[in-house]
Amino acid sequence: MAENRFADQVAVVTGAGVGIGCEVARQLTLGGASVLLNDLDESLAQQAALSIQNAGGHCQGVGGDTADVEIVRGLVKQAVDYFGRLDMVVANAGLTLWADFFEYQPENFDRILNVNLRGSYFLAQAAARQMRQQGQGGRIVFMSSVTGHQAVQYLSAYAMTKAALEMLARNLVIELSPYQITVNCVAPGATVTPRNLADDPNYEVVWGRVTPTGRPALPEDIAQAVLFLLSPQAGQITGQTLVVDGGWSATSPTPALDFVPTQDK
User: Positive or negative, the Cα torsion across 9, 15, 21, 26?
Assistant: First the structure.
């Protein structure tokens, strides 16, 4: 990455205590940006921000549930209060709930929609309002998934939210382009993160077997795609989805998902 590619720019990254979001925040600061790093777990957000600060990056960590509209509006305000402006938003906060469709519970359905869709939608709205007011354009990136393109068993609600984010990005092109605000998605395939390893300790091995490149992605693989869409080089790209999956969606085999509870047949 070119040094200081993001100099004097300010970003909000949600769901960034660990994994992809944390790596995006870290890479942005390496490029010269100042970052407001959010996570549901405030202690994780502060630990991640401290690590970035200790490496010389400008970063503030804040807790908060992005399903709450007032929280996401507050993130935009805090970014402006801390750093004076807002140029980039990465709506990375998301929830994955593996479950048999026949057993899916309404409270889980509501929770995944609130985090993955409601939070992303209203964060983008608050950010775009600030960017419009500043009059200097901006970048918004939603975190989608290959499950928004290819069916994976036990992820019916999750996949629905990810496909919806991609349509949201396409639709917002109409309203945001007059203000020089681009809006895109990154759709990761299998990625080795603490959340995925908590679901399945064998995650890296089993997904490596079905990924054409021979391994699942690492957070830095996804972060580099996000940073490209945030960069000046992507100024003419908007309403698009960049899939980063090691070729998995070209073939789409699914490993055994024995860790998911199912209804007895």
Answer: positive
176-214 pLDDT, tens digit per residue, is 999 999 999 999 999 999 888 888 899 999 999 999 999
- Let me know if 158 is a catalytic residue: yes
The two three-digit tokens of residue 259, written as one number: 């860790």
The confidence score (pLDDT) of residue 260 equals 73
In three-state form (DSSP H/G/I as H, E/B as E, the rest C), the secondary structure along 107-148 is HHHHHHHHHHHHHHHHHHHHHHHHHHHHCCCEEEEEECCHHH
Angstrom distance (rounded) from CA 214 to CA 193: 17
Q: Domain map of the chain by residue range? A: 10-190+217-250
Distance between CA 81 and CA 77 in Å, rounded? 6
Catalytic pick among 121, 158, 179, 203: 158
> 203 an active-site residue?
no
Nearest to 193 by CA among 106, 66, 96, 76: 96
Phi, psi torsion values for 184, nearest 5 degrees: -140, 175
| Catalytic site residue from 162, 179, 203, 265 | 162
Cα 161 from Cα 147, distance rounded (Å): 9
CATH class of 10-190+217-250: alpha beta
